[in-house]
Amino acid sequence: MQKNSPDKMVSSSNNVAKLFAPRHLKPPVDWAAENCVLRDNISELCGSLRLFPYAREPMNALVDPMVNKITLCWGSQSSKTTTMYAGVAYLLSEFPKDTLWIMPSAENARAFSKGRWLPFIEDCQPLREPCPISPATGRVDTDKITNMRQEFLNCTLTFAGAGSENNVKSAPVAYLVLDEIDEIDPDIRLAALERIKGRREYKIVQTSTPKDEVGGIWEEYLYGDQRHYFMPCPHCNEMIEFAWKQKDSEGKERYGIAFDEKAKLEDGTWDFDLVSRSAHYRCQKCDGKILDAHKVEMLKQGEWVSQNLNAPTGHRSYQLNSMYAPAITFSDLIVSWLQVSGSIHGLRKFVQGNLAEPWKEDWANQEESNAHELEYDYQRGDLMGEYRIIAADTQTDSFWFVVRGFDRDGKSYLVDCGQVASFGELDEKFDQHKCHVGIIDWAGDRTAEIYEQVFKRRGTWFGSRGWNDLGQGQPYRMQMKDPFTGDQKGRAGRSKIRYLHINKGIYEEEMARLRSMQLSGFYTFADTPKTYYDQLFSTYWVKETTKNGHIKVGKKLKRSRGDHLGDCEIMARALSKFIGIARADRQSPVVSENNQTPKQSKPRRTQSSTGGWW
Ligand SMILES: [Zn+2]
C-alpha cells in the first residue's frame, strides 16, 4: 500500500508557499478519506481512511471554534485511536500549532510513533509537505523528524509518556492529546494541562476505555455534555441507542441482546452455538429484531444527542460501546459476556472494554429488593447439595444458624436458617438436615461452655474465629487447639479441637458478589424469610475521600439488622473451602461419620434469565 518512498519527500519553495495559501476547508472526515491512507500492517481496513459514521461529529468538533475539549469514552474496536490520529493529522495540516501528545509510557509513545504515526505522515501528503529537508541529503531531516519529536516547518509535535515529566513541562502548546488517559499518571496529566492554561485558543482531545468511576475518562465524560449515539430502528423508525441493559415496555430490565431461550441448558450451562445463531438486538421501542446486517444503515443515519444540558460550553463528551463497532457482531458480544459472567476479573474487563463503562466500586451495594432472584425451585428443608454444613453464631442466650448444602462444583443451597436456644437444638438441626460437619463462632463469657460443647462433638464440629486479616492474604488457617489449656481439672493436652481462623474481609467480598449474583451458584429456598435477606445484606460499602484526596472503600453495617446469618454463611463457606468442596484437585471432599447419601433433586430455575450479573 506504500504510495510514497522517503526519497520522494522533497520540499521546494513551491511547497512552502502552499502552506500559506488560502484553503477551501473540507469536513475532517472527508479530508481524512482523501489524504490519509491506512497501510495493511496497521489495520485490516487498509486503503483510504474511511471513518465510521459516528466519527463525523467528534471530528467536526475539532474545527468548531466553540469547542475546546473533546472526550471520547469508547469501547474496544470502535476505532477511537484511528479517529483521534486522523483528527490530529487534520489539525496539524489545516491549522498547524504546537502539539503535545501524551501516552501512558514513553515506550508506548515511541512504539506508536515509529510503527504507526511516522508511516502515516509519510503517506499523508499534507503532512509530508511541511517536513523539513536536510540540505546535506536532500531528504527529510531526520534530526528534526524523530520518533518523539517532529519539528515541521510550521509547528512542532512532541510525544511524551509517563516518566518524561520534563517534556511535559516545557514550552506551551495549543493542542493537547491525551491517549488512554486512564493509564496515564494523574500528575503527568495535570502537568500537561498546565501547558495550555491561559491560552485563549486551544484544543484538548482525550480518549480511553474507562477503568474506574473517578479520576479518569469516565469523570471527564460526566463533566462534558454526555453524548450518546441514536439511530432509527429499521422496524419502527424511532430513534434508539444500543444499550446493553434496557427496559421493556412493562419497565422490566432485560439485556439488549436476546437469543433463543433453549440455549440455556438444564444444568445451567449454555449451548453457545445456539446462542450465537440466534443472537440479535431487540428494539427498546417495538421489540423488533435488529440484526448485524441492519447496523451499517442505522449507523449512517445516526446522530449524537447530548444527555447533559448543564455541561460547560465547549466540552463535548462522547460515549460509545462496542455494540456500535461494525466489526463486532451481537453474537460475539453476548457469547463472550456469558463466558465471563462467572468471573469478576472477566466481567470487569468486559464492562470496561466492551461496554465502555467504569467498573463500579459499589458493586456490593445491591439492595435486597432483588434477593428473591436467588431462590431456586425447592422448599426449606429439602436436602439440597451433596455435603451439608451447619454454621452457628453464638449469642448470650441463643444461637443463629444456617444449614447450607454444597455441591462438588461449588454450587450451594440454603437448606434452613433461624435462631435456636440451645446446643441441643443445634444437634437436632444437624441430624434433621443430615449435616456432615458443623462450625461455630463464640466470644466472651460463653467461651468455656462452647469449648466444652465443641469438644464433645469434636468428630464433626469445628470452632471458629473471624479476623480482618490473617496476613499474606490467606483466606483461612486451621489450628488444632487444646480447649482445656490451663484448665484446673488437669485435662490439658488430652485432646484437641479443630479451630478455623477465617479472613472475613475475603469472604465478605465473596458473599457480596454471591448475594448480588455477580458470582453465580448461590441459592436460597422458595420463600426464604425476610430476616435472612436482611442479615445477608446488612453489610455495605461506601466510598470515602481520605485527607490526601485518595478514594477508599469502607465497609459499613446496617446495625439494627444484625449480620449473624451473614456471619454463619461466611463460616460455612470458609469451611467448605477448607474441606475441599469446589476444588478440582480433591476427589473426595468430605471425611465424615455420616455417610448417608442426600436426596438428589435437580434444581430448576423458576424464571429464565440469561446470566447472573443483574
Ligand atoms: Zn423499533
Describe this protein's structure.
This protein is elongated. A hairpin with an 8-residue loop joins β1 (37-38) and β2. It is an alpha/beta fold. An eight-stranded mixed beta sheet has the order 23-24-22-21-18-19-20-25. α2 crosses α4, α10 packs antiparallel against α12 (330-340) and α12 runs antiparallel to α13. The structure holds zinc ion. Zinc ion is lined by residues 233, 235-236, 238, 283, 285-286, 288.
DSSP helical segment count: 18
Overall shape: it is elongated
What's the end-to-end separation, in Å? 47 Å
Helix vs. strand class:
alpha/beta
Strand content: 15-25%
Radius of gyration, taken over Cα atoms and rounded to an integer in Å:
31 Å
Which segments are poorly predicted (pLDDT under 50) over 5 or more consecutive residues?
1-14, 583-614
Tally of strands:
27
Biggest sheet descriptor: 8 strands, mixed
User: What ligand species are in this complex?
Assistant: zinc ion
